[in-house]
Write a structure and sequence with these properties.
Elements: H1 10-36, H2 41-48, E1 51-56, E2 59-64, H3 65-90, H4 97-122, H5 139-149, H6 155-179, H7 186-204, H8 210-227, H9 233-241, H10 259-283, H11 291-296, H12 298-325, H13 336-345, H14 350-359, H15 364-392
Antiparallel strand pairs: 1-2
Helix pairs in contact: 1-5, 1-10, 3-6, 3-9, 3-10, 4-6, 4-12, 5-6, 5-15, 7-8, 8-9, 10-14, 12-13, 12-15, 13-15, 14-15
């Protein structure tokens, strides 16, 4: 039986880092907005369009700094997302179908309803491809706002929001892979298949070296990049092959952490404190010249209404239906007012919403409208969600008891 010092749920570490990342994310977004709309705006935009690359013999491989962030650095973010999804499925909150059912159904409802609202406003129009933008929840931003509510919130509330956002990320990954891939290169697909086979063999043969998975992961990224599927999907595919359990017990009797936990511990701080803020710097710097016209366009309005209204309706409605049609009950510490507040906070789409907006087939005006819609929805959902959560949790006391540690399993 582990002692009190060992009873630390790895999800709690994840929540703390994501909450702190949310503060950096907000700061980076503000900096990008200010610079993009200052006299330095042209220089700021030109900076991210700077081409960088490497020479291999007579061949040059290059891309803009903006693409280095979105197609390169963001692979780390998606790898961490994939590791967290796998850990929760194998060892954590999503392992037990009865426990996982409620946040999973809530996440599906919270993704489908915003997409439907967006399509009702944009179906058949030039902005129709952006239906995936309002589906996402930014876990770092949402947990950051939750942290600002104050101490003493029930652990069930934080865990439910984190689990919902993790499932939401999984839905977003599937949407990106299936619906935001323009064409496939068979040579790239073949490379992906071969490398994935090698990764699976390494997992089955008990390979625990992160260097092996790292080397194969680079080859996988290159294959996905060439294939036509967005390169960040390589991070999720790699995460699926990382062993989540430890190998043979060590001779000295000390607990051993699995490769998945070691890699997540290594990369999560880099993702939370560097990759995501840099992504905000590269993508949130949208010109505000469109003003209200951008926010009232069908694209901007579809994203705002989808995130701010559709998210809470989808989450609350699907949760209510599940509790009425089955024996499923809300976890201890969660009430319907808190569920409503949580649904509003889930309307903070920011990182994944901006990312999908980059992939959608918008023209220049549509891209501006989409990004302004995401930023406006983030501000509205964060403000209303903070107030709603303060009111819903007034008088809450610390039910934040630690849960069993899954890291050495």
């Amino acid at each position: 039986m582990p002692g009190p010092s060992r009873l630390l749920d790895p999800l709690r570490d994840f929540l703390r880092q994501e909450a702190a990342s949310g503060v950096l994310l907000l700061g980076a977004a503000i900096v990008a907005l200010v610079l993009a709309n200052s006299p330095m705006g042209d220089a700021w935009e030109a900076l991210w369009e700077t081409h960088v690359g490497v020479f291999v013999g007579d061949q040059v491989f290059g891309m803009t700094l903006h693409h280095v962030v979105n197609d390169g650095l963001m692979v780390v973010f998606f790898l961490v997302v994939g590791l967290e999804i796998k850990r929760e499925l194998v060892l954590g909150e999503l392992r037990d179908p009865r426990t996982a059912m409620l946040p999973m159904v809530a996440a599906v409802g919270g993704a489908v309803v915003p997409a439907v609202i967006y399509l009702l406003l944009n179906a058949g129009g030039p902005g129709a491809s952006g239906w995936g933008v309002p589906m996402a929840t930014d876990i770092a931003f949402a947990l950051g706002i939750l942290a600002l509510v104050g101490r003493g919130l029930p652990v069930a509330l934080r865990v439910f929001l984190a689990t919902l956002a993790i499932v939401d990320d999984l839905i977003a990954v599937v949407v990106i892979a299936l619906f935001y891939t323009s064409s496939l290169d068979l040579l790239g697909v073949a490379e992906v298949v071969v490398v994935m086979a090698l990764l699976i063999v390494a997992n089955r043969r008990g390979v625990r070296s992160l260097a092996v998975y790292g080397g194969l992961g680079i080859a996988l990224w290159l294959g996905v990049l060439v294939s036509g599927v967005h390169a960040t999907i390589a991070g999720v595919l790699l995460a699926a092959t990382i062993p989540a359990v430890v190998g043979a017990a060590p001779h000295d009797g000390r607990p051993t952490r699995s490769p998945l936990v070691r890699l997540e511990d290594l990369l999560h701080p880099w993702s939370a404190y560097l990759v995501v803020p840099v992504f905000a710097l590269a993508n949130a710097g949208v010109r505000l010249s469109g003003g209200l016209d951008s926010l009232t366009s069908t694209v901007g309005l579809g994203i705002i209404v989808g995130l701010v209204v559709g998210k809470p309706i989808g989450i609350l409605g699907s949760t209510w239906l599940l509790t009425r049609l089955t024996r499923t009950q809300l976890p201890d510490g969660l009430t319907w007012p808190r569920m409503l507040a949580l649904g509003i906070l889930a309307g903070i789409g920011f990182t994944m919403s901006l990312f999908i907006a980059e992939l959608a087939s918008f023209d220049a005006a549509g891209q501006r409208d989409a990004k302004l819609g995401v930023l406006a929805a983030t501000a509205i959902a964060a403000s209303i969600g903070w107030v709603a959560m303060r009111l819903a949790t007034r008088g809450a006391r610390g039910n934040d008891a630690p849960a069993p540690d899954h890291r050495t399993h």
